[in-house]
Specification:
305 residues; mainly alpha; single chain
């Protein structure tokens, strides 16, 4: 009974921590307008739930999972959790430790997708200044139309961004509607810089204007400053990030060493041993999440969605 109670407490705490970080939830509570209060936004109007679904879709697009169904992601998380629980049961022989490691295993795909999303966003942030500058040169010096300049620059974009530009070009070839084309590109990239660039190009295409060259130049300069600032911040955090990963291995090594000495494995199977295992796992998880929050750089908010 104590093991089940500890497992339920660990599961609830992990759920609240993850939803607080990933979705910004601050506890349970009804909200009438879905925009204020401390609840998760499942209120009378449903606006909070819709906003979170849209945020999840943006997150998936930024991680390169735009065409993956949510239930497939849930199945991957459940499978990884089952594997982690099995490993915990084999190592410690205790259900509470199995549940705790199962939750950790379920968090592994999410961590992998977060790393993939971070890599894709970094590639997009570093490439957009060059793309904007190339579009500026194509529209001003070469005389290309705005859609042609966008697609030509997109063909020389990083490989991670090419599928989005190809989808936008297909939409243009089918509809010749540049507004719908930019909407496809913004939805596939889900990037603030892409939103601003697409809106600038859309206005120039629809109403014209001689200041497109100046606006694109200013946008490219702003993006270069932002990318350089982020690179400097990441470089300063390199040693701390390495230490954060290294410290994660220390408790695992201590646990394996404890099981291999004398009656260490039997000690883990006692009620007090299970309690210490769960407390240790939760302490490591909390410190890992806390350190990640301290090291996280602020993300730009999308405006032109």
């Amino acid at each position: 009974m104590i093991g089940l109670l500890l497992a339920w407490t660990a599961a609830t705490g992990t759920y609240l921590l993850y939803t607080s970080v990933a979705f910004g939830w601050r506890g349970f509570g009804a909200r009438g307008d879905g925009s204020a209060g401390s609840g998760p936004g499942v209120g009378l109007g449903g606006a909070g739930w819709t906003a979170r679904i849209a945020r999840l879709r943006d997150w998936m697009a930024q991680a390169g999972l735009a065409e993956v169904r949510v239930r497939d992601l849930a199945a991957a998380v459940a499978g990884a959790g089952a594997v982690g629980g099995f490993v915990g049961l084999v190592l410690f022989g205790a259900p509470s430790a199995a549940v705790a490691l199962g939750l950790g295993g379920a968090a592994w795909p999410i961590a992998a997708w977060r790393a993939r999303r971070r890599a894709l966003r970094t590639a997009a942030q570093e490439s957009w200044p060059h793309l904007i500058e190339e579009i500026r040169l194509l529209t001003s010096a070469v005389g290309r139309s705005v859609p042609q300049a966008l697609f030509e620059a997109g063909r020389r974009a990083p490989v991670q961004l090419c599928p989005a530009f190809e989808a936008a070009q297909r939409e243009w070839m089918l509809s010749t509607d540049f507004e719908r084309t930019t909407a496809v590109l913004k939805a596939r990239l889900a990037d603030p810089t892409a939103d601003a660039a697409c809106e600038t190009l859309l206005v120039a295409h629809e109403v014209g204007g001689a200041d497109l060259d100046r606006r694109l130049e200013a946008l490219a300069r702003d993006r270069v400053i932002d990318v350089q600032g982020r690179k400097d911040a990441v470089a300063k955090q390199a040693g701390v990030r390495f230490a954060r990963r290294f410290v994660l291995l220390v408790p695992c090594g201590m646990a394996l060493a404890g099981m291999s000495i004398g009656t260490g494995r039997a000690a883990y199977q006692t009620a007090f041993g299970q309690l210490l295992v769960v407390v240790g796992i939760l302490a490591v998880a909390l410190c890992w999440v806390w350190a990640g929050l301290l090291l996280r750089l602020p993300d730009e908010e999308r405006v032109f969605q």
